[in-house]
TrEMBL record:
Pfam families: ABC_tran (PF00005). This is ATP-binding cassette domain-containing protein. Residues 225-250 have a biased composition (Basic and acidic residues). Belongs to the ABC transporter superfamily. SMART domains: AAA. Residues 215-260 are annotated as: Disordered. The lineage of its organism: Bacteria, Bacillati, Actinomycetota, Actinomycetes, Micrococcales. The keyword Transport applies. Residues 5-237 form the ABC transporter domain. InterPro entries: AAA+_ATPase, ABC_transporter-like_ATP-bd, ABC_transporter-like_CS, Metal_Ion_Import_ABC, P-loop_NTPase. GO terms for molecular function: ATP binding; ATP hydrolysis activity. It comes from Actinotalea soli. Keywords: ATP-binding, Nucleotide-binding, Transport.
């Protein structure tokens, strides 16, 4: 079976600087992969290159088995960019913005059940009671959750999320984690940029860590904070202060592997 995401030797330059240096990334169908790394390590650039928003200098990308371009089944893919506003010049309600996620190039009218699907998606991000509110009246974090719901409403086969929970409060993060769990249980492939695993810890099966635009770890996710207290915690990884780069790699050094 082909991978859901397959990137090989990806090089991206922006503003005259090389941001990604020969990145390889494979996400298998049904996998949940977290993309981690310090600020500026290239996570968003990688995600944006994968969905074709920024050009590549070199390398190849395939999504759902098709090379990046028109042949990709975009209607089967949900993408949530890094925090932007969901408010447009048009005074739309949260439900309307979410329903727009059911429309794509080949389907210009929302399906009959769009409203109930939108309601369910809003419930998934803890915003069921705000469905009829104008998006511009919602807070920044609430608008971000509307955009997540717009991606969820597609019932995507592949979901790509760029720091979806940044600035989102803990109860809403939990609601969102539950919604992702449901999607994952139904076989959705999820690639998610995160600053820390947080509420998504139980869900993320593999972590890919970027540093200065290169992959420095691809394997087991870092242990949750607080796990140090556990009797069975295995002290084989470096702690803060052990290495200069500890913070940049979320405590992961390139040579370090965790036992699952
Ligand atoms: N349009 C651009 N032009 C020039 N440089 C850019 C552009 N976009 C990003 N960069 C640079 O690329 C590097 C990687 O940025 P990117 O946003 O991919 O990092 P990130 O890991 O997502 O960071 P964060 O965690 O802060 O979101 C940074 O040094 C950034 O300044």
């Amino acid at each position: 079976m082909t991978a859901a995401v397959l990137a090989r030797d990806l090089e991206v330059s922006l503003g005259g600087a090389t941001i990604l240096h020969g990145v390889d990334l494979t996400v298998d169908h049904g996998e949940v992969v977290g993309l981690l790394g310090a600020n500026g390590s290239g996570k968003s650039t990688l995600i944006r290159a994968l969905v074709g928003v920024v050009p590549r200098e070199r390398g190849t990308v395939e999504l759902l088995g098709k090379p990046l371009g028109r042949s990709v089944a975009w209607q089967r893919i949900g993408y949530v960019p890094q925090r932007t506003t969901a408010a447009t010049g048009v005074p739309s309600t949260a439900a309307e913005v979410v329903m727009s996620g059911t429309i794509h190039g080949r389907r210009l009218l929302p399906p009959r059940d769009a409203r109930s699907r939108a309601q369910a998606a809003l419930e998934g991000v803890g915003l069921a009671d705000r469905a009829d509110d104008a998006v511009r009246d919602l807070s920044g974090g609430q608008q971000q959750r509307v955009l997540i719901a717009r991606a969820l409403v597609r019932r995507p086969e592949l979901l790509v999320l760029d720091e979806p929970v940044a600035g989102v409060d803990l109860p809403s993060q939990d609601a969102f984690a539950g919604a992702l769990r449901d999607l994952s249980d139904r076989g959705t492939t999820i690639l998610v940029v995160l600053h820390e695993l947080g509420a998504l810890t139980p869900l993320v099966q593999r972590a890919v860590v970027l540093r200065h635009g290169s992959v420095v770890h691809d394997g087991a996710p870092p242990p949750a904070r607080g796990e140090h207290a556990g009797a069975d915690h295995d002290h084989i990884h470096p702690h803060a202060g052990d290495r200069d780069q500890t913070d940049e790699t979320h405590g992961l050094a390139p040579s370090v592997r965790w036992r699952p």
